[in-house]
Amino acid sequence: MEIIWTILHFMVLGISLAAPVGPINLEMIKRGISSGFFASWLVGLGGMTADIIFLLIILIGLAPYLQIELVELCMYGVGGGLLLYLGITTIYGSFTKRKILELGQPIQRNSFLVGFSIAAFNPINFVFWFGIFGSSIQSLSEKSWIIALVGCLSLLLGIFLWNLNIAFTVHFARAFIKEKILKAVNLGAGIFLTVSAFPFLSKFLNLIL
Fold first, then answer.
1. Domain locations along the chain
2. Where does the chain cross the membrane (predicted)?
3. CA distance 194 to 38
4. Is the CB of residue 108 less than 8 Å from the CB of residue 38?
């Protein structure tokens, strides 16, 4: 009974972690609109790969070594710079004469790397894994490593299902949405990504000044 409860609890936690509108979701939507299912899915897969690496770091006990000022500095600098770059290029693409659905193929090549980078250098993601989730796994591992492992896998399953949902939904919905609406969605995503970069860059500047 405890295992079933753990599976349900952490699966819902995974969905709850992945569901809020954030850089990963917006990048999945943006690439799903322009390039279809696989480009969107690769962003989510890249993000999940970073999550798995964070999880392994927690499980083997290396988390304290990453919670130092130099790592925090890199996290805010690279994360903020990446979001700013993605935001500006997305906004620029929204004003080009080319149709969104014609932007497709080139954007697929780096989808996995972009998804991985957003998740790996997102300070909010970092805080979740090494703060909130890290303490949860620690308490579970004191009871049983099997329960802790089930919890980890269930969390990843929840994230996986949500990413799959976004990729499928955007892929099938884009054929029914007019070009102007697609560009408006793209523009909105670009603005959100750009705005999201400023708190990280501000924190980065505060750390180096």
1. 23-208
2. 42-66, 73-92, 112-133, 145-164, 184-205
3. 24
4. yes
